[in-house]
Design goal:
This protein has about 1100 residues and is α+β, with helices and mostly antiparallel strands. The chain has 33 helices and 36 strands.
């Protein structure tokens, strides 16, 4: 008799046949569950005041804190937000109550509904809420206690993560964590295409992530489960309210079972796809099917009275196992010595006729002497035609011999369809079925001696693993009990026969069963006569030990078809419950870690504190502690402070008193944590006398037990995270310490990321506020970032240039003529510095001082360039003014030398000549001395005139630059004795005298440098022009300039650069030991 509510398999069945959750806390033994009720706050909402007072009394008698609320949705929601209860107990949803009550910190409150309803609409409605159980009226205090405990323990560990933009798994530490958890994280676009799947898929199912990306998820789903996996093609929140389970196919073609917990996510209000987590439940499903198959087979075999029934039972059970599409049984014929086909089911039109009889002796010999497996040996026994048909029709072929006393007397054959396989667990289950077949077949040998009477029935029932009892309604007593009462209850069968129905159950369970039994009898004619009701109950052994039991009940009927007795089959399922509990705990543990780690991926800085507090709350509630907290060390490591804390209800906060504590006050406590070992104190009172100060400090906070683990980064203690128990002394299992360690690592990674982000923000602020124009380009010369100053000066938005090549950012051929070569030079790991004139939008031509620095990442490889441009136009203008003053003074000095000193010396020379001529007449012997003086003065006059001409070579403005340079070359050749000449390819047309002056001085300085510093014997000046641009080049054949001398003063390079800046020219210098030096000046005419 299955429950009339919909989808009852997806709801955990409670001890009263309803849907109350039955999950328990970790490592909880049956009957020993403990709920910390003093810490548990219950919000009670009932329509009837009398019912509310009665229910509140039941709860308060059992130690719960109860808060009553008026019976309206708004009042209940307001009370929930004010009191933050652990659970809400209420009548079936009142009008106006939201489906999920969320607190300001985002936690969903579990709900326990009290109702008399049992219809599909009711269950459909409560599935949309945070329902953790249903309690049906009428009930007593014990039933209410049970339902509340179960609902609390079944509550989710953390709230569902809000659906948002697709996760960006960009940081190495969080990516490593996400990629190594057991669950598989995936992201689909709205079309169902896989856009992300975590690498664990390859380890679990041998699919490489890159093979799955871009493919539709349906390619990996079993065709029969597509409707379930796609949720009927719906994307609404209701479709994602509960996880879905379906079959998928791994790389080897094997069937696996998955549970998908997912949600749609939206970007800018538009559906962007689906993100979720896949959990492998193959083992769980196979175990469930195996247990059910073996249980049903055991029942069938226990009632079997002939070999045919046994074989049919084996065939039917085997076909129910995953992956098996065909099954057949051979039995040994003792007279012929052959294994003969006795039955077959399923599979591509095959039946037992294809499996011809074959010799058992030859079959055994093939295995023992030829070393073949049972499957290969079986195929060898069949005709070639049959083998080909089998190999074409089936994907895998398995044979399991059934032996007795070392000899094969039966053979069970199973196969999967073509292209599919048989899971390993299925073969294990099939082996168990074969063993049961051997046991049942052995029992058939004694059937004839039992005469098919009550003796036979008793023998069969006594050999079952379950307790079987029959209770007669007319006699109101047991009429049959098998021998398992000793194992289940420690009671002899004869004694049990005298006990009342349900006497081994709690009073609440007994009343519930009697109430259900009365309801079944009253409505028997309206229901299926072959129905079976199942219950999960907590029963007691005579020794006081409690155990979980599964009760299956069905009616035995009289000749008129009316219920005459009830047959109860009771099975001890404590081990299964224990295994399920361990699995649930492990799943919740991994789910908690997964959700905490995912929560902190890309968590904004302003939400970090809230996220840390929520994580402390989650792990604190999961571990059942009174206080969870984080301490962080100061930058210098001399002090520590309690930065984050969560306290259970009723526990006082200590955070305000634990600020800025000196480290030297706690040498033992912090010393152990500094050595990367956890601090575990199960009993504060038992601390040694050597740590009196720290013991007194802990006892002052009321702490009775404590555990803490360090938060280490780069072998340095950053802080620690810990749990306190205040109400009672507590031992901490290894799982709890592991939980703290994992969360500590997550928080350390978070701290490191915060520091990196803080440093990054500082650098971003520095760069953003810089007056320099800064550009970052990758190794392909594409722009990746630009600061505000660059965008402002170039009058462009950053988003418009990101991704663009440099030749589209700098116009006028600057990239090809200048930047490309400088970037190539910098790619070798060197910094390039140069100046260039550039027309900025809306401004006159500006002079930019440009530095190109290589950007290095992993392995010190250059992966980009930082281009720093500084506008030095104003400085150049100032330098030009200074240089103009210098030139003016030079001209003034030159004019004074020419017009002043030179004329005076000329007058002296004339007087000297006159004196010499006079002395020749009067004193001939002194006339030679006077002539020498005259000659010296004339030489001085020549030198003064040359100096004046050098200081002011532009006294005659009509002389062209080419003529002036040619005159200069002649003077240099005459003075220094080298070959110096000029080649004019294209005459220049320079109208501005100032520009001619500066170009002349640049050429002059370049020639002097070649003569004085490079040891050149030949200097050539080349003058040419094209498209309005003049180029003057000075080449020499000397030894080049030493690299270390290019930046020192005395070579005139700085003055040449200044002169080039004044006229908007570009100066390039190339020097080498073999090729000499080349100085090139380019400018607009």
């Amino acid at each position: 008799m299955h429950h009339s509510g919909p989808d009852n398999r997806s709801w955990p069945k409670g001890p009263r046949g309803g849907f109350a959750g039955t999950a328990r806390t970790k490592r909880e033994l049956p009957g020993e569950r403990k709920v910390s009720r003093a810490n548990t706050t219950i919000l009670l909402v009932r329509k009837d005041p009398g019912d509310a007072r009665k229910t509140a009394r039941f709860l308060e008698e059992r130690g719960y804190n109860v808060i009553l609320s008026p019976p309206s949705g708004r009042a209940a929601a307001r009370a929930a937000k004010n009191h933050d209860p652990d659970i809400m107990v209420l009548d079936a949803p009142p009008d106006g109550l939201p489906a999920t009550l969320s607190m300001p910190h985002g936690r969903d409150i579990p709900l326990l509904f009290i109702t008399t309803r049992d219809d599909a609409d009711f269950y459909r409605r409560i599935k949309k809420t945070a329902c953790r159980g249903v309690l049906r009226e009428p009930f007593d205090g014990e039933a209410l206690e049970w339902a509340v405990d179960n609902a609390l323990s079944h509550n989710d560990i953390t709230r569902k993560r809000e659906a948002g933009a697709a996760p960006r798994l960009s940081e190495d530490n969080y990516r490593s964590l996400v990629e190594n958890i057991n669950e598989i994280i995936y992201v689909l676009d709205p079309a169902g295409t896989i856009t992300y799947i975590s690498p664990v898929i390859e380890r679990r199912y041998h699919w490489k992530p890159e093979e799955m990306l871009g493919r539709h998820y349906s390619e990996f789903i079993h065709p029969d489960d597509m409707a379930v996996a796609s949720r009927g093609g719906r994307w609404d929140e209701e479709a994602y309210a509960v996880p879905v389970e379906y079959r998928a196919v791994d790389r080897g073609g094997n069937i696996v079972y998955l549970r998908s917990s997912s949600r749609p996510f939206y970007v800018d209000g538009k559906l962007a796809g689906e993100t979720g987590v896949l959990t492998d439940i193959t083992e769980e499903k196979l175990a469930e099917k195996t247990i059910l198959a073996q249980r049903d087979l055991a029942v069938k075999l226990s009632a079997s009275l002939d070999a045919e029934t046994v074989i049919n039972a084996v065939l039917e059970t085997a076909l129910d196992l995953p992956g098996i599409a065909y099954c057949a049984v051979h039995m040994l014929n003792g007279d012929t010595g052959e294994l003969e086909p006795r039955g077959a089911l399923g599979g591509a039109g095959f039946d037992g006729t294809i499996l011809k009889p074959f010799s058992a002796h030859r079959f055994t010999e093939a295995m023992e002497n030829r070393g073949l497996g049972a499957s290969e040996a079986c195929l060898q026994m069949l005709p070639a035609r049959s083998r080909k048909r089998i190999q074409k029709a089936f994907g895998r072929w398995e044979c399991l011999p059934v032996k007795k006393e070392g000899e094969t007397f039966a053979l069970v054959t199973a196969a999967s369809l073509a292209g599919e396989g048989i899971p390993g667990n299925t073969l294990v289950a099939l082996g168990a079925i074969v063993a049961q077949m051997a046991d049942a077949t052995g029992r058939l040998n004694v059937i004839d001696g039992l005469k098919k009477n009550n003796e036979f029935l008793a023998t069969v029932l006594d050999n079952m693993r379950d307790l079987v009892v029959i209770f007669d309604f007319k006699k109101q007593s047991y009429i049959y009990v098998n021998a398992h009462t000793r194992q289940h209850y420690g009671i002899e069968p004869d004694e049990y026969m005298t006990m009342a129905l349900g006497s081994q159950l709690s009073r609440g369970d007994a009343r519930m069963l009697l109430r259900v039994l009365k309801d079944e009898i009253d409505h028997d004619r309206e229901r299926d006569p072959n129905r079976v009701r199942e219950f999960i109950l907590l029963e007691r052994h005579r020794s006081g030990r409690c155990f979980w039991a599964q009760l299956r009940a069905t009616f035995l009927r009289d000749h008129d078809g009316a219920p005459a007795a009830i047959l109860n089959i009771v099975r001890d399922i404590s081990e299964k419950i224990q295994a399920d509990e361990e699995l649930r705990y492990r799943n919740e543990f991994e789910d908690l870690i997964t959700r905490i780690s995912i929560r902190f991926i890309n968590l904004p800085a302003e939400k970090v504190d809230r996220g840390v507090n929520e994580a402390l709350r989650s792990i604190g509630r999961f571990a059942g502690v009174d206080r969870s907290y984080i301490f962080l060390m100061s930058d210098d490591g001399s002090r520590t402070s309690n930065t984050h804390e969560w306290c259970a209800p009723g526990i006082d906060s200590q955070k305000a008193h634990l600020q800025d504590l000196p480290v030297e006050e706690f040498p033992w406590f912090l010393g152990g944590l500094s050595r990367s070992s956890e601090l575990y104190i199960p009993d504060i009172d038992a601390m040694s006398a050597g740590v009196k100060k720290e013991k007194r400090f802990l006892k002052k906070q009321g702490i009775k037990s404590l555990v803490a683990v360090p938060m280490m980064s780069k072998k340095k203690l950053r802080g620690f995270i810990g749990f306190d128990s205040v109400r009672e002394k507590k031992t901490w299992p290894k799982d709890t310490i592991d939980l703290l360690r994992i969360v500590a690592e997550i928080f350390v990674n978070l701290l490191n990321r915060q520091e990196s982000e803080r440093s990054l923000r500082i650098y971003e602020r520095i760069v953003s506020s810089s007056r320099d124009m800064i550009l970052f380009v990758d190794e392909g010369h594409r722009v990746r970032a630009a600061n505000d100053e660059f965008c402002a000066m170039f009058k462009i938005k950053a988003r418009d240039i990101v991704g663009s090549r440099l030749d589209t950012v700098f116009s006028g051929g600057v990239y090809e003529s200048i930047l490309k070569d400088q970037l190539r030079y910098s790619s070798a790991g060197r910094e390039a510095r140069f100046e260039m004139w550039y027309d900025l939008p809306g401004l006159d031509q500006r002079c930019l001082d440009v530095a190109v620095s290589p950007f290095r990442e992993k392995k010190n490889l250059v992966s980009g360039f930082i281009i720093n441009c500084r506008d030095i136009t104003e400085r150049i203008q100032t330098e030009a003014k200074v240089l103009g003053v210098i030139e003016s003074e030079r001209r003034k000095i030159g004019m004074e030398l020419h017009d002043g000193l030179s004329h005076r010396l000329l007058g002296v020379a004339i007087r000297g000549k006159m004196l010499s001529e006079k002395l020749k007449e009067d004193l001939p012997e002194t006339a030679d001395g006077a002539s020498i003086i005259e000659e010296s003065i004339n030489a001085c006059i020549g030198e003064v005139r040359d100096l004046a001409r050098g200081l002011n070579p532009f006294r005659h403005e009509h002389i062209s630059l080419e003529d002036r340079v040619e005159e200069l070359c002649t003077l240099v050749s005459a003075k220094f004795g080298i070959q110096c000449g000029m080649e004019c390819v294209t005459p220049l047309e320079i109208s501005a005298l100032g520009k001619v002056e500066q170009v002349y001085y640049i050429i002059h300085e370049a020639i002097i440098n070649a003569v004085k510093h490079s040891g050149a014997r030949k200097v050539t000046v080349l003058i040419e022009s094209a498209d309005g641009t003049a180029v003057c080049t000075v080449r020499d054949d000397g030894g080049g300039m030493p690299r270390r001398d290019r930046r020192v003063k005395g070579l005139g390079l700085d003055i040449m650069r200044y002169r080039a800046r004044m006229i908007g020219a570009t100066l390039k210098i190339k020097s080498g030991k073999k090729n000499g030096t080349q100085i090139q000046c380019s400018f607009r005419q």
